[in-house]
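Hi everyone,

Forwarding the result from last night's run.
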Amino acid sequence: IAPQGQLQTVTFTGAPSSAAYQSTFTVSSTTNASTEAVITASGACSITGNTVTMTSGSGTCSLTANWDADSSYSAASSTQLTVASKIPPVISWAAPLAITYGALLTGTQLNATANAEGTFVYNPAAGALLGAGSYVLRATFTPTDATDYSTADAQVALQVNQATPTLAWTPASLQLGYSLG
């Protein structure tokens, strides 16, 4: 039997140095005493059982394991810190159907979506008239929630086909005595 008041031998592991918003990880704790650790979370995370969920994309998650004293050992505690990081939003943007020269870019081609609220800036922009050829359309997404999400870029290919020319010819009046050949 250890003398009363001896320090517990404890371990508290599992917290990474950094973790992304909405990710989860598991922590574990052990001791040579008869007590179980009570693990609490504060800052950019929450904990249920031994599973930690990152609730923010910025700040620090602080996890503390506390062991009560028992008849042989003093109380003990251990802390782990995890820095939160933003996640890139998921952008969906299907390659648009080819357009014909003369058609302006519209929301039909510039129609990217994201899994977070925010705004898109397109290059070239809506209303642009592109010559015949192959193009890469680009979009930059800026999330409304800049605490948890980072900006993101996407691109798709667009083919602009040549237009079929329309010819109009009105023959001039012919005078007698002149030939066309």
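The mean pLDDT is 93.

Cheers,
N.
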